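Protein in question passed on here:
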Amino acid sequence: MALLHQPHDRLFKDSLKEKPVAVDFLRSHLPPQIFKRLDLNTLQLTDKSLLTPDLVEIHSDVVYRCQIDGKAGYIPILFLLEHFSTAPQHVAFRLLQYVVTLMNDALKAGNQKLPLVLPLCIYHGEQSPFPQSTDIYDDFDDPDLARALVFKPFNLIDLTTLPESVIRQHGVASLMEMLLKYTRERDFARAVSQLKEGETLSFTLTQTTEPYLQTVVKYALSSAWSEHQTDKVLEVFYEALPDKRETIMSAAQQLVESGIQQGIQQGLQQGMQASQAEVWQSGKLEGKLEGKLEGKLEGKLETAKNLLAARIDAAVVKMATGLSDDDLAELE
C-alpha cells in the first residue's frame, strides 16, 4: 500500500516549484544558447488550470514564465514542465493542446502577440526507452504528407485582389466567389448583370441544385436591398434562367416574407411606443387602444409601401401584411 497518493507526481511538482531546482533543471536540459538568453530574475511560477476549446479542464504540472533577452514589454517565454510515469498515446498532441491553450490565455489577457511555449517532460516508466514519438507529425497516417501540409501558413484566397479573369476559371465555384467579391459594389445590379452576360449565372445554376439557386437568389437580393436594386437583380435572374422563374420567385417571396416579419415587428414596436407616450400624456384608455391600432397599421402600411416600390407582387404583400385591397390600392 502506497503511503503517498501519486508519489511520483508529488515529488516532481514539489521539486520544480522550488525555484533553485527549476533553475538548475532548465540549465541542465535547455539548449545552452536558449538558457543564456533567460532573465532568471524574472523566473516566476504560474499556477495554471487550463480549459481546452471544448471546455475540458487541463491540470498542467508546472508552468514557469520568464523574460527572454531582457526586452521591456516582451511576452515571457513559458516553460511547460510535465511528468510521465507511463507512456500515453498521442502525447505530442496532448502537449500541443496545452501549448495552444496557454497561448490563448495570453491573448485573452490582452497580449497582441503569442508567447513562446516550450514543453519539457520527464519520463521514468517501466518501458525503456520512452515508447511514444515526441513528434506530432508521427500521429498522422502519412507523416511526410503532414509535414508538407500541416502547421504551415494557411491558404488565403483574397477575393479583393484576385482578378476577375482568374476567378472565372474556377468552374461552378466562380459564382460564389464573384458574388462575394462584388457584394460591396455600389452598383451591385450591374455586377450581377455582368455575371449573366458572361454566362456565369446560367453555367453554375444549371449544374447545381434548386436549393442552391434559392440561396444565390436570396443572397443577391439581400445584397441589393439597401441600394433599392432588387427589381433589377430579380430581372437579371429571370433573363438568365427563364425556366426557373417559379423557383426564383419562391426564393424572393421567402426573403420578402422574412423582411416583412421584421418590418411588422418594428412597426408594432413603434406603435406600442407611440401609444404609451399618448397614454402618458392623456391618461385615457381610448388613447392607448388607438395608439396600438395606429401603430400596427402604420407599420404595415410603411412595410407594404416599401415592398410595392420594390415591385414585389401585390398579392404577396397583401398575404404577408394582412392589408385590404383598398389599402393597397391607395398605396399604389
